Amino acid sequence: MITKNYSIMTLSSAMLLATGCSPSPDVAASSNITDYQGSGSITQGVANTVETNLFECKNGRSRIAGMGEVTDSQGKTWTVPAKNHFTTAPKAVDLYEECESITPQSLSNVDESSVPVSVIDADGDEITGYIFADNYFELYINGSLIAVDTVPFTPFNSSIVKFKVKKPYTIAVKVIDWEENLGLGTENNRGKAYHPGDGGFIASFSDGTVTSSDWQAQTFYTSPIYNLACLKETDGERRSDTCTTEGTDNGQNAYAVHWQTPSKWMDKNFDSTTWPQATTYSEDDIGVNNKKSYMNFIEKFSGAGATFIWSTNVVLDNEVLLRYEVK
């Protein structure tokens, strides 16, 4: 693995964090030079807003889903929370979406026959997929973009898709945990101005495919980080286990780590052998027990044997790419 060594001069408090331990969440990033050993690119502080809001909720409230750009120490500009096709791609059909007043009590109230079928192979099998993402997903089958989530941030929604394909085929999904404070991986939540959100993705398909630890999950954007020494890379895993996940009112100078997304990551023949396996999470971990968009269709999620998946850090990793080959 080729690594980069960045010496970063930060802009906040004067505390030296040389031990590698996570700082108090009420202490901003160190103002001293910190050496980062890793393959990512480092940015610090809030991004410049380039899109104020991608989504307007017609019947209710939603968090602002903005887009931003932030420049790293080498002069490269990164899009946050991630590049996406929300404004241009076909949308998935909503199972449950409060902003459109689509709130069925169960699957029996959903007209599945009206869901359009994306044809990958004309002589393939028709497959139905049921998806819940916190917050946003883009679904590819054999490299073709099938559909994207209809809500980038909140309120929480769930989706249904159909496609026709022959086995073996490859599912690839971009998932994004959206952010309110662009470039910082945080939102105003739980009494803190800068609180990291959490992600989560679960899906089942009518051919028996379900999300599990057999899938692969690789991280491409991690934030907020208040001490770069807490980051580790081992055997292809980009880990932030020892980094704090606490909220703070003083998080405006947090670091973020970015990795370049491979251009063909969604293709069937893309080589993802170095990517780690997905980490699984419980319904309690993700906090869906009070989400009607999930609970009203639970028989198609955990009831079908699917589990929530993400990278190794469901809180700090904000852009994750998933892959799975259906044989």
| Helicity, as a percent range | under 10%
Q: What is the CA–CA distance across the termini?
A: 30 Å
Strands in their spatial order, largest beta sheet:
3-20-17-23-13-10-11
Shape: globular
Total strands: the figure is 23
Main β-sheet description: 7 strands, antiparallel
**% residues in beta strands:** 35-45%
Which value, in Å, is the CA radius of gyration?
A: 20 Å
SSE succession: EEEEEEEEEEEEEEEEEEEEEHHEE
Low-confidence runs: 1-24
Give a structural overview:
The structure is a single chain. By secondary structure, the protein is mainly beta. Helices cover 2% and strands 37% of the residues. The strands form seven sheets. Strands 3-20-17-23-13-10-11 form a seven-stranded antiparallel beta sheet, with no helix packed on it. Strands 7, 8, 9, 12 and 16 form a five-stranded mixed beta sheet that branches. β10 (136-141) and β11 form a beta hairpin. The protein is globular and about 55 Å long. Residues 1-24 have low confidence and may be disordered.
Question: Keywords for this structure?
Answer:
2% helix; 327 residues; five-stranded mixed sheet; mainly beta; seven-stranded antiparallel sheet; disordered N terminus; single chain; 23 strands
Q: How would you summarize what this structure contains?
A:
The chain has 327 residues and is mostly beta strands. It is built from two helices and 23 strands.
